[in-house]
Design brief:
Elements lengths: L24 E8 L2 E10 L2 E10 L4 E5 L4 E3 L3 H6 L16 E3 L1 H13 L8 H34 L7 H7 L7 E4 L3 E4 L5 E3 L8 E3 L6 E6 L5 E14 L2 E14 L2 E16 L5 E9 L5 E4 L13 E4 L4 H4 L5 H12 L4 E2 H6 L3 H12 L3 H9 L13 H5 L3 H9 L4 H13 L5 H10 L3 H6 L6 H10 L6 H17 L7 H4 L4 H14 L2 H11 L2 H4 L1 H8 L1 E2 L3 E4 L4 H11 L6 H9 L3 E7 L8 E6 L4 E6 L8 H24 L1
Parallel strand pairs: 1-6, 7-11, 12-17
Antiparallel strand pairs: 1-2, 2-3, 3-4, 4-5, 7-8, 8-9, 10-11, 12-13, 13-14, 14-15, 15-16, 17-18, 19-20, 20-21, 21-22, 22-23
Length: 650
C-alpha cells in the first residue's frame, strides 16, 4: 500500500501517568500537515503500549500496525479485531474501559466534519463511515479513470472506409434486394425506381428491369416492408494487434421508398498480430441519455451477437493478406463476396492444410456450396480423405458428380447420392437424380417398399395423382404405410399397398387411425415413448418463440402429439414420428395463433442437427395463411441461428 505523507515515529512514548486509571484502552488524536492521526493504545502490565495508528485525509485512509511494522488498508473495526488482550477481549473504542479524551474526540469530529464526513453516535462508527466513504470515492474515481481509458483507446482506432456501406450492399446483401409489385405498379428497393405493373409470382427471383440487380419479387398484398438482418465482421489490423469489429446490419425497405442500410457496432475483440491468442473484448452499450460507450464487462441482461460464423467485409483484403496465408485469404474473399457466413476466427488462426485443400478442390470442381460446408462441418463431413480423385473422395459415381456440379449440390444432396451409391438398390441414375431433387434417400424409399420392389414403389409414386411434387407424394405415402402397419392392414395385398387414390386412402387411414380406440392409443404411447414428456422443458428452452401473431411450443407428451394429429386430421400421431421424436432424431413442435394458444393450428417437424424445417402442415395436410406463416417461420429461423451463434461463441 502506498504510504501517506505523514509517517509514524519509530517508537511511541508511553502515555503520561495522570491519564492512567481504571481504563484498559485509550484513543488519542492530533492533526498534522492536514492529516488526521489517531493513535490507539492498550495498557499492558501498568504500561501503555501503542497498537496501531490510523491516518485519514480528504482522499484516502490507511493504518500502520506497530506490532507487524507494516501498512494496511483495512477498515478500523477489522484493525481492532486483530488486537486482543491477555483475556481475549477485542479492542473496542465504544466500550466502557476505553478512554477517549475530550480533546481527541473534538479534534476527530471537527476534522471529519471539515472534510465532509458525518458524525454518528459512536466514535468508531463515525470513523468507519468516513473510511467507507473514502473507499467508495476511490472506487468510483478508478472506475471513471478506467472508463476514460477505454473510451480513449476506442477512439484511437481508425474509422471505417468511405466505401464501407457500398461494399456491404454489393456483397453481404447482394441477393436481398426486393421489388414490390401489384397489378398497377412496381417499386425496386435497390434503385428506388417506380415501374409499371409487374406480372410475377410472389417470392420469385429475378432482376430489376431498370437497374438489372438481382431482386426477389414480393406482392404488396403479402408484404409492404421488410428488414433483412445480418451480422458483419470487419477485420482491422492496427499497430501490433488485429481488431475484429462486429456490426449488426439491417437492410430496411418499404414498398414506396428506397432501401436503407443501418449499422450498429456491437463488439470489438483484440488479438495478437498472428491471431495466436485472444487479448481483450469490448462491448458497446448505450447509457440513459442514449449515448454510446464501450466497456470490458458483459452486462448479464444485454445480449450481444458475436461468434465464429459471420459474413465478412471484403473491401480491405489487401490488409488481411498480411495476417493469413494466400490460400486462406482467397477463401475468405471468395465466400465473403457471396455474402456467405464464415468461421472467420478459425480461418484467421489457421485451418489444417488438408481442410484448405479440400475446400479448394470442391470449389474448383464447381461445388461452392459443398466447399463452404467443408469449412463449417469438416469433422463430420462424409468424405474419404485418403483418396485423391474427386468422385472417390465423395464416394459417388461419375454421373452423380456431374449432376451435383450442374445443380451446385450441398451436403444434403451428397448424402442422398452416397446412400444410393453404397446400397445399390438397382435404381438408374435418372431415378436417383429425381430422388435427390425431391430430397429423398433411396434407403427411405426402401423402408416403405416390399423386398426387392423399390422400383415398383418409385413408379407408383411418380404416377400418383393430386400432388405437386414427388416429395409431397412420398411424405403422404410413408405416413399411409406407417398407419396401415400400425392398424394391421394386409400390406401384402397389392390394392392395400398401392391404393388407386393415395390421397383418399391416406385420409381414410388417418380417420380410422384416430377413431380406433383413441384413449387406448394415448395410454399406449405414453408408456411406449416416455422421453417425449421429459423433453418438453428442454425443447421449450431451445425452440420456443413468440410474436404478436404466432407462438411456437413443444408438446407435453406423446399423447399430446396423438391428439394433435387427431384434431388436425393428419398423421403426426403415428409411431414413425413418435419414435423419431422420442429418440431425438427429429422433433415435433406446435405452432399456434398468439391470441388462441390452446387451439391447434400448425404442426412442424424440425431436424435438431441444423434446425432445418422438414415439413409443416395445418389441418388435413394443408397450409392455410401460408405467406404469413412463411414470414413468421423465417423470423423463427433467424432467432434460432442467432441463438446458436451465441452458444457457439460461449
Amino acid at each position: 500500500m502506498r504510504k501517506m505523507q505523514f509517517a509514524p515515529k519509530n517508537s511511541m512514548p508511553i502515555y503520561h501517568e495522570k491519564a492512567a486509571g481504571e481504563e484498559d484502552a485509550l484513543v488519542d488524536a492530533f492533526v498534522k500537515d492536514n492529516i488526521l492521526v489517531i493513535d490507539f493504545y492498550r495498557k499492558q502490565t501498568d504500561k501503555w503500549s501503542a497498537l496501531w495508528r490510523t491516518l485519514i485525509n480528504e482522499k484516502e485512509y490507511c493504518n500502520f500496525d506497530y506490532e507487524a511494522q507494516s501498512w494496511n488498508g483495512e477498515y478500523i473495526h477489522h484493525q481492532a479485531h486483530r488486537h486482543t488482550d491477555a483475556y481475549g477481549r477485542v479492542f473496542g473504542i465504544w466500550e466502557e474501559q476505553t478512554k477517549v479524551t475530550e480533546k481527541s474526540r473534538d479534534i476527530i469530529e471537527k476534522y471529519i466534519t471539515k472534510v465532509g464526513g458525518y458524525i454518528c453516535g459512536e466514535l468508531e462508527t463515525t470513523i468507519l463511515r468516513m473510511e467507507e466513504n473514502l473507499a467508495y470515492r476511490k472506487r468510483e474515481t478508478e472506475k471513471e479513470r478506467k472508463h476514460d481509458r477505454i473510451q480513449k483507446k476506442m477512439k484511437e482506432l481508425p474509422g471505417t472506409p468511405e466505401d464501407f456501406e457500398k461494399v456491404i450492399l454489393s456483397t453481404t446483401f447482394k441477393n436481398d434486394h426486393i421489388l414490390y409489385f401489384n397489378k398497377e405498379e412496381g417499386y425496386c428497393s435497390r434503385c428506388g425506381r417506380q415501374l409499371p405493373g409487374v406480372k410475377k409470382e410472389h417470392n420469385e427471383h429475378g432482376k430489376c428491369p431498370k437497374c438489372r440487380k438481382p431482386v426477389v419479387f414480393k406482392h404488396m398484398r403479402y408484404m409492404k416492408e421488410h428488414a433483412e438482418e445480418k451480422e458483419l465482421l470487419y477485420i482491422q489490423p492496427f499497430k501490433e494487434e488485429v481488431v475484429l469489429r462486429y456490426f449488426k446490419c439491417a437492410l430496411i425497405s418499404t414498398c414506396h421508398s428506397k432501401e436503407k442500410l443501418e449499422m450498429v457496432e456491437t463488439v470489438r475483440t483484440y488479438h495478437s498480430e498472428d491471431m495466436a491468442y485472444f487479448k481483450k473484448i469490448y462491448i458497446c452499450y448505450l447509457d440513459c441519455l442514449n449515448r454510446k460507450y464501450w466497456s470490458d464487462k458483459m452486462n448479464p441482461y444485454c445480449t450481444v451477437a458475436y461468434g465464429r460464423n459471420t459474413t465478412l467485409y471484403v473491401g480491405n483484403m489487401e490488409q488481411v493478406r498480411e495476417i493469413v496465408n494466400q490460400k486462406v485469404c482467397d477463401i475468405m474473399e471468395i465466400t465473403g463476396s457471396e455474402g456467405e457466413r464464415l468461421p472467420v476466427i478459425d480461418l484467421l488462426r489457421g485451418y489444417s492444410e488438408e481442410r484448405v485443400l479440400l475446400y479448394e478442390k470442391f470449389y474448383k470442381a464447381g461445388l461452392p456450396k459443398l466447399a463452404l460446408e467443408v469449412l463449417k462441418k469438416y469433422w463430420d463431413f462424409p468424405v474419404n480423405r485418403e483418396q485423391n480423385e474427386l468422385k472417390k473422395i465423395l464416394k459417388i459415381s461419375k454421373p452423380m458428380l456431374r449432376y451435383m456440379v450442374c445443380h451446385n449440390g450441398d451436403k444434403a444432396m451428397l448424402e442422398i447420392m452416397q446412400d444410393a451409391f453404397a446400397n445399390q438398390y438397382g435404381l438408374s441414375d435418372d431415378k436417383i437424380f429425381e430422388l435427390a431433387a425431391a430430397g429423398i434417400k433411396a434407403s427411405e424409399l426402401a423402408e416403405v417398399s416390399e423386398k426387392n420392389k423399390i422400383i415398383k414403389t418409385f413408379h407408383y409414386l411418380r404416377k400418383a395423382n393430386g400432388y405437386k411434387s414427388l416429395k409431397g407424394t412420398f411424405s403422404h405415402y410413408r405416413d399411409y404405410i406407417s398407419m396401415a402397419s400400425s392398424m394391421g392392414y394386409d400390406l401384402s395385398n397389392g390394392t392395400v399397398r398401392f391404393p388407386n387414390n393415395l390421397k383418399q386412402a391416406h385420409d381414410n387411414a388417418v380417420t380410422s387411425f384416430y377413431e380406433e380406440e383413441s384413449d387406448k392409443r394415448k395410454r399406449e404411447v405414453l408408456k411406449k415413448y416416455p422421453n417425449i414428456r421429459n423433453l418438453e422443458q428442454t425443447l421449450n428452452e431451445q425452440y420456443s418463440f413468440k410474436t404478436k401473431d404466432y407462438v411456437i411450443m413443444a408438446p407435453h407428451s406423446a399423447a399430446d402429439i396423438v391428439e394433435e394429429g387427431r384434431t388436425l386430421h393428419h398423421c403426426v400421431g403415428g409411431d414413425t414420428y413418435l419414435e423419431k421424436h422420442n429418440k431425438g432424431r427429429t422433433f415435433i413442435l406446435f405452432m399456434r395463433k398468439a391470441k388462441k394458444p390452446d387451439k391447434r393450428y400448425y404442426t412442424i417437424e424440425i431436424d435438431p442437427k441444423d434446425n432445418r424445417i422438414i415439413q409443416y402442415y395445418g389441418a388435413n395436410d394443408k397450409q392455410p395463411d401460408k405467406e404469413a406463416v412463411d414470414v413468421f417461420l423465417k423470423q423463427w429461423k433467424r432467432y434460432l441461428n442467432k441463438k446458436a451463434t451465441h452458444k457457439a461463441a460461449g
